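LOG
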Amino acid sequence: MKALSLPDGIAVIAAHGVHGPAIAALHKLCFDEAWSIFTVRQVLAMPGAFGLLAVEEGVVGTGGLGGGDLLGFALGRSAAGECELLSLAVTTGERGRGIGGALLAAAIDRARRDQVSRLFLEVAEDNAVALRLYRNFSFRPVGRRPRYYRRPQGVALAALTYSLSLED
């Protein structure tokens, strides 16, 4: 895995419950089954959970994102020697700038600090951009859940499970 750098003026910071509304709003824009503010805050409050935010540098105040926009997020949870990347999203206008890769690299670093041996994630089979990102980070397919995701038009798609060994 090669080192990734963020575009100038963007930083990755830790997420907290106060960021729940911004994360939920971006989640709603990026996924058919949106998480509520309550759900995001529950996730962040779970033992071993972590959140990472991609934000414009200099706009983060003590109470949240200040006047700046949330550009992307990653949510994960470490437990019993494993970590699961629960959700990762980048706002449409910022895609293709390396933010998703930087968030994924930061999540991998966090999982390593948590001393887990394996990182798992799940992705819809039609999400070509995410699949390319995960493969570029050496994630390997380990499972498939048929008809797991439902699109608004009623189409059912498989969820693909990927894994990355963190043991060197």
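LOG (cont.) second protein
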Amino acid sequence: MSAKVKVIIQDKQRTVKIPTGTKMLVRRCCNAVMEMEDFKEPAEVSVTFVDNKQIRTYNKQYRNIDKETDVLSFPMGENGEYDTNPATGAKLLGDIVISMEKVVEQAEMYGHGFSREIAYLTAHSMLHLLGYDHIEPLEKVRMREKEELVMDMLGLPASSSYVLDIDT
């Protein structure tokens, strides 16, 4: 059994009304990733809900990309080493920032619900906090497989857009 992760959630936007159960789903998703990764130590992660304008500002400030995106990850660890909260002993994994406008937009675009989209983005970002990336094709496949496994663990539908292009 893996350790529980404390998920601190802030809603800093007023554009999208957060459906009941969303915060619990985000917490369940973070814990599912930790369980899948067999992360044994207590951990903390911060999740902030923002609008497109706010995430565009962060994207420009931290990545020098002047456009909105769906999710940003700010890992606090490197090579499996994390700072520790001196008060709790929990490993500080980092911060996740999610554009709620993008969640709504992409849920519609991909033809699945709000819950599946926010869970997917949370899983994706949690994997980044744990050191995964998707720059190389094989890394991308590995990360996508893990994201889909988490969706399965949560009882959410698999992605219809999950297609492996074996020619690349």
